[in-house]
Amino acid sequence: MKKSNIYIKRYTFSLMIMVLVAKLFAQQENHFTQFMYNKLLLNPAFASAREVTSLSGIYRNQWLGFNGAPKAMLLSFDAPFFNNRVGIGVNLVNEKKGITNKYYASLAYSYSIVRTEDIAFRVGLQGVLRNYNLDFTGSDQFYIDNPFLDPSIQYNSKISQIRGNVGVGVYFDYKEFFFGASVPNLYKNVIGINKLTNNEVAEEFQHFYLMSGFLLKLSDKIFLKPSGILKFVKNSPIDFDVNLSLFFNNKFSVGASYRDGDSVDFTTFVQATKNFGIGAAYDFTTSELSKYNNGSIEVLLRYDFGSGASKSKFGKDIQNLSNPRFFF
Fold first, then answer.
1. 12 has a pLDDT exceeding 60
2. Residues 73-128: pLDDT tens digits?
3. Residues near 32 by beta carbon (within 8 Å), at least 6 away in sequence
4. Which CATH architecture has domain 2-327?
5. Per-residue DSSP letter, 1
């Protein structure tokens, strides 16, 4: 009976890992529930789109209680130059999942082709460096029954690879509406080769993103913001996130999101001071993985430098953080 229980546990664990790998294959790019507060990671054209110098960080702990589940940290900085015609952005990311540990750095450049009081259209380009690390040396998160049946398993070895790439994007906003399209990595990279067989076992895929949303004024102090993002990867189903948030007095927001086939999420954001904001999100897993985890959490911190006034799209001079572009 004890031996039978061991096989059942191994079988169950193997199924869980298969589901995890399937989900991660479709999510080679990092994605955060609070993407609406930091689009620079997915679209280089967003650099300085908010028209303020900004520093933000996000910590994500996915699928709580699931051994080897993803954990990610993001640090982003962007700033406008030359009367906001030019934007520069930097992303630093660390992500751990299972036996993998990935470091990511990108430098983004954006240029405003059109910029008026109501319209802004930016194009962006970025350079990317990724460091992939895999550890097959006996982690408790990885069980190998027969390593020779799968050429991707490099038994009892550690792998570290650095790969570069480039990405492009466009970002447009008109009054209270925004739209963005991007490909963070334009070309495929081989990111796994079995040294014993010299077989390619993994590669980076192009990820295509479309994002959009608008701001609806319900009263002088209450705004409604629907937003969403569509993700497409070759040989994977089209995926999407939709979010609906209410903003109160430009200082506090609550919202809910739906991630296709994966989770229902709740978000909140507080503009604690004129320059400093803090956000949080909790995801309720809706897939089969809900049986094995307690949801996901995110924490976001953002600091905006400067306090100059600008003319809002609602007609009066107010602080930058009250400008509708703050919401985007």
1. no
2. 999 999 999 988 999 999 999 999 888 899 999 999 999 999 888 899 999 999 99
3. 38, 41, 58, 60, 72, 74, 298
4. Beta Barrel (2.40)
5. -
Whether 270 and 263 have beta carbons less than 8 Å apart is answered as no
Residues found in the chain:
328
DSSP assignment, residue 227? E
**Residue 149 identity (one-letter amino acid):** L
Sign, CA torsion 275/253/75/294? positive
Q: Which residues of 9-28 are buried (b: 16+ CB within 10 A; e: fewer)?
A: eeeeeeebbeebeebeebbb
Map out the domains of the chain as residue ranges: 2-327
Question: Token pair of 28, please?
Answer: 């080679």
> What mean pLDDT do residues 20-48 have?
75
Q: Any idea what the Cα angle at residue 259 is, between residues 213 and 60, rounded to 5°? A: 95
Q: 3-state class of 4 per DSSP?
A: helix
* Average pLDDT score over residue span 173-193: 86
Residue with tokens 């572009």: 325
